[in-house]
Amino acid sequence: MAMQITTGTSELRDITKMERIGAHSHVHGLGLDDRLEPRANSQGLVGQAKARKAAGMILKMVQEGKIAGRAMLFAGPPSTGKTAIALGMAQSLGPDVPFTMIAASEVFSLSMSKTEALTQAFRRSIGVRIKEETELIEGQVVEIQIDRSLTGATKTGKLTIKTTDMETVYDLGMKMIEALTKEKVLAGDVIAIDKTSGKVTKLGRSFAQSRDYDAMGADTKFVQCPEGEIQKRRTVVHTVSLHEIDVINSRTQGFLALFAGDTGEIKPELRNQINAKVAEWREEGKAEIVPGVLFIDEVHMLDIECFSFLNRALEGELAPLVIMASNRGMARIRGTKFRSPHGLPMDLLDRVLIVSTKAYSEEDIQQIIQIRCQEEDVQLTPDAANVLTSMAMSTTLRYALNLIACGRVVARKRKAEQVDVEDLRRAYTYFMDEKRSVQWLKEQQGSLVFEEAGEPTDELMDST
Ligand SMILES: Nc1ncnc2c1ncn2[C@@H]1O[C@H](COP(=O)(O)OP(=O)(O)O)[C@@H](O)[C@H]1O
Ligand SMILES: [Mg+2]
């Protein structure tokens, strides 16, 4: 039995995401010029020129559709902008190019197998751009007539609709009557009805009706009465990800699962059917594949099974660009006894373009702190800015950036507008950075619960 595969509606894509101030919310792009040269300070990114340029080149290849099924790795010490640059790439992708971000450890915490979690992440990152012909009824409403049955339980009706050239009467069923009532359609409105979905869109009031001004609000939009045929064909283009098609068509889930984010496992047979259908659509010219980007942060947290899955999945026909980030130097590959650069097995490393990030200069740090202060709407006194910069140099950038918000809270307590050195000093004593924390742990030896360290621990990449 051939199954009907649906792709949902374009409305599904219009869910607006909530914006808030996060660690990377100041990043709006890669800050490159037309020749892909990094500007010193642009779109929220500062310095790290080589890595940004490399990211820009790879992005260019993605946009030209030349790169899919490839992988790149950002390797560098903590707090050197690996995640920030990857997110900058995401912002520079087109609006319908999918970007998915997962932290490697999520793969183990979801209520599904590791490979299913990775498969879903892969399929989220592949877009299918679908061209659909829809039939529209478009015209100015002349009259809507609704008849109730004696009991009032059922309604029937008639809709008279016209263009400048013709006029037609349509019979209305219950569903159509409901849709028209919901949109508050009146005689004199210009409307469009999608014939397949039955969706009613109010385009505006007809100019001919503009004289009954007392009947409408100030925001009423006036439009011309359409010309020509009432029934029209239109092509609409919308992009959905393979994962969305999977979920919409999986019987147990339904598309509401997309909102809940709880999609469970999807049967391989269904995926095969969908792949076959998409291939068919491509041949008929009804659909195009839009390879997107999958970003796996802290990739050294994956284990050997996940890595071998990645290796195989990257060779598949429908593979996105995979960007990974790791802050490990030589590290044990999870699930094995072997150590390897960045915690990645050699066969995977072999197919990866590696981009390294380096520790920032003092100037760069100064500017990043400035950008973050603007983003968080915090004012530092010039002295405090200098102190924070040197704190960032001796601890990490991330620690210093965290102190901005803490400093503000302390300053507020003494009702000051600006954060001063003293506020930072306080914040510094309240919150430890990593080095002091390690020192403290050593001093407390015995009074805290320690784990036995059997094997040599992984080494972090050093920032010096
Ligand atoms: N080049 C940069 N320009 C602006 N902000 C940056 C830059 N590099 C890092 N940051 C910011 O510094 C913080 C730490 O960087 P992050 O990207 O999380 O480091 P990593 O992922 O390498 O550990 C984040 O808040 C990030 O947005
Ligand atoms: Mg990171």
Structural account:
This is RuvB-like helicase. Belongs to the RuvB family. It is found in: Nucleus. One of its GO terms (molecular function) is DNA helicase activity. Its EC number is 3.6.4.12. This protein is α/β, with parallel strands linked by helices and 464 residues long. The chain has three domains: 22-97 and 292-359, P-loop containing nucleotide triphosphate hydrolases (Rossmann fold, 3-Layer(aba) Sandwich); 128-286, Beta Barrel (OB fold (Dihydrolipoamide Acetyltransferase, E2P)), CATH 2.40.50.360; 362-443, Helicase, Ruva Protein, domain 3. The chain is 34% helix and 23% strand. It contains 15 helices and 19 strands. The protein has helices at 49-63, 82-92, 106-109, 114-124, 174-182, 242-249, 256-260, 268-283, 304-313, 346-349, 362-376, 382-394, 397-413, 421-430, 434-443, and strands spanning 41-42, 45-46, 71-75, 99-103, 126-148, 155-162, 167-172, 189-194, 200-206, 222-223, 231-241, 287-291, 293-297, 321-326, 330-332, 339-341, 352-356, 379-380, 418-419. The strands form five sheets. Strands 5, 6, 7, 8, 9, 10, 11 and 12 form an eight-stranded mixed β-sheet that branches. It has a five-stranded parallel β-sheet with strand order 4-13-14-3-17, sandwiched between helices. The protein has a two-stranded antiparallel ribbon with strand order 1-2. Helix 1 (49-63) packs parallel to helix 2, helix 4 (114-124) runs parallel beside helix 9 and helix 6 packs across helix 8 (268-283). It starts with 40 loop residues before the first strand and ends in a 21-residue tail after the last helix. It binds adenosine-5'-diphosphate (ADP) and magnesium ion (MG). Adenosine-5'-diphosphate is lined by residues 23-24, 27, 44-48, 76, 78-84, 325, 327, 368, 371, 397-398, 401.
